[in-house]
Amino acid sequence: SPLPGGSPIQTYLDALHRRLAPLREGLVAAYIPELAHADPAWFGIAIATVDGHLYSVGDTAQCATIQSISKPFVYGMALAEQGVERVLAKVGVEPTGEAFNSISLEPDTGRPLNPMINAGAIAVSAMIAGTDAADGERRIMAMFERYTGRTMAVDERVYASEARTGHRNRALAHLMRNFDIITGDPEPGLDLYFRQCSVLVDCRDLAIMGATLANDGVNPLTGARALAAPDVARVLAVMTSCGMYDFSGGWIYRVGMPAKSGVAGGIIAVLPGQMGIAVFSPPLDSRGNSVRGIRVCEEISADFALHLFHTP
Ligand code: GLN
């Protein structure tokens, strides 16, 4: 039966949201012109547990593009479709210590260092696109739908905006074509990357996606398996070492959970066996991570002693 006064977790989240809403640091991403229309005041927090409970506060029904939070999920899909060795031959698993859009490839091979930076994610999307990018997109949407339990759509305006202005990502794709990390025409794989980044999600979707990873790959609300458990472990490993770009070390030190951020302002954090935490707040710090998102996860981790390497 419900506790008098409601769930203590809900009360906690309401207070946390109230306390961090006035934070005014950070800037909304504008290098993709369409993203600049985001409201810096948007702020949602959602938590989904592996037993299917969902807690949310704030703008958790506001849709925004998934951006780089797509990367670990599409990486998991590549592992499932192509196997670990084929994927590792194209994309490494070492942190870069550099920005998400860095032009950093291994010098001799041209292999991107990891699948969480743009170069690595574009190489992964090129593998998914294969010879039929339209089919790749259908498989990606079906994959996201297993994680969220609902029908997903692409924000065509954000997609068009990034496809028109993404010269740096285009350069990365062609550089990798030069090294035969990408074979054939690099444009279809690049385009698929732009489309996967433009998939619309709300904070609640992100929490459920995180909870699915926390639940060994099974969506706790629908019971559908989204990814095999050994591949979930691989995805969480790269999120741990590389998910927050050049803040990955600081993040795992302070928050202690695998995580992924996106430039539209989302962050997901995963506590294996327990929950997915999602925050949506567009203003970003200089590394492209949501300012309120980082604060929320730091505080939840500290207040509930959730750091993975802390044994209560
Ligand atoms: N689509 C964005 C880009 O490639 C994703 C970057 C991000 O979310 N960090 O620049």
TrEMBL record:
Enzymatic reactions: L-glutamine + H2O = L-glutamate + NH4(+)
Keyword terms, alphabetized: Acetylation, Hydrolase
Taxonomic lineage of the native organism: Bacteria, Pseudomonadati, Pseudomonadota, Gammaproteobacteria, Chromatiales
Protein EC: 3.5.1.2
Record protein name field: Glutaminase
One Gene Ontology molecular-function label: glutaminase activity
Top-rank EC class of the record's enzyme: hydrolase
GO biological processes: glutamate biosynthetic process; L-glutamine catabolic process
Assembly and binders: Homotetramer.
Lineage: superkingdom: Bacteria
Record has Hydrolase as a keyword: yes
Amino acids binding substrate: S68, N118, E162, N169, Y193, Y245, V263
Residue spans crossing the bilayer: none
Gene name, Swiss-Prot/TrEMBL: glsA
Family assignment from sequence similarity: Belongs to the glutaminase family.
